[in-house]
Specification:
Layout lengths: L1 H28 L2 H8 L3 H7 L3 H12 L11 H18 L1 H11 L9 H20 L9 H23 L4 H12 L6 H6 L6 H8 L7
Helix pairs in contact: 1-2, 1-4, 1-6, 4-6, 5-6, 5-7, 5-9, 5-11, 7-8, 8-9
């Protein structure tokens, strides 16, 4: 059991080091040598867990995806809002989350399949919007698949702008603003009035969830 625990810790150490290097340098410029240096492990230890730089990048994706579960809410639209709020908070406090976003947005990352995070976010969003429609939370014209695609695309764009202009410091505000613009076009008025879109909600929910290491 001790050997298994050590292997888990070593894998986590390697992923953390890879996240630091990917987040700082991007996928193309990152090297196994630099990741080994940051991790402080042997080449054999790294290759025991990951066979290539691509596997390391996919490991970073998997370590912070799919979107973290949030407490169940009577309104599924509130759950949808909450998932993005918690993730926005994590982007300010968690290196793996930042590295995962950097990799998924990195158009220079040749040979890396970057579709996974987008597809998982889309699946989660579609599921919640479908349940919201079944609950009568959505306006009659809303097609959940179309709205899910728009949500993921818009949230990705907001993350890029926030990272570029403030290193994610204003992402909570930008995400809340995004919701205030999108939700009136899909939610019935009574549901819209009941949603909590406050900027502080993400940090509050994150503190209630199981604690995770922060930078």
């Amino acid at each position: 059991m001790a050997m298994q625990d050590r292997a888990i810790r070593t894998r986590r150490t390697i992923l953390s080091a890879a996240a630091q290097v990917f987040e700082k340098q991007g996928y193309q410029a990152a090297t196994i040598t630099e990741i080994l240096k940051v991790a402080g492990v042997t080449k054999g230890a790294l290759y025991f867990h990951f066979q290539s730089k691509e596997e390391l990048a996919l490991g970073v994706f998997d370590a912070q995806e799919p979107p973290q579960a949030v407490p169940a809410q009577p309104l599924k639209l509130q759950e949808l809002v909450d998932i993005g709020m918690v993730f926005s908070h994590r982007l300010r406090t968690n290196m793996l989350a930042r590295a995962g976003v950097r990799l998924s947005m990195d158009q220079q990352a040749q040979g890396l399949d970057r579709s996974g995070p987008f597809l998982r976010w889309q699946e989660t969003t579609l599921n919640l919007l479908t349940r919201a429609k079944e609950n009568g939370e959505l306006l009659p014209h809303v097609v959940p698949a179309e709205s899910a695609d728009l949500y993921v695309s818009a949230f990705a764009g907001v993350q890029v702008v926030s990272q570029t202009l403030s290193d994610y410091k204003d992402l909570d505000h930008r995400y809340s603003s995004l919701q205030r613009h999108i939700l009136p076009s899909i939610a019935v008025p009574s549901v819209l009035a009941a949603l909590d879109l406050s900027v502080e909600r993400g940090a509050r929910l994150a503190s209630e969830l199981s604690p995770e290491p922060e930078d």
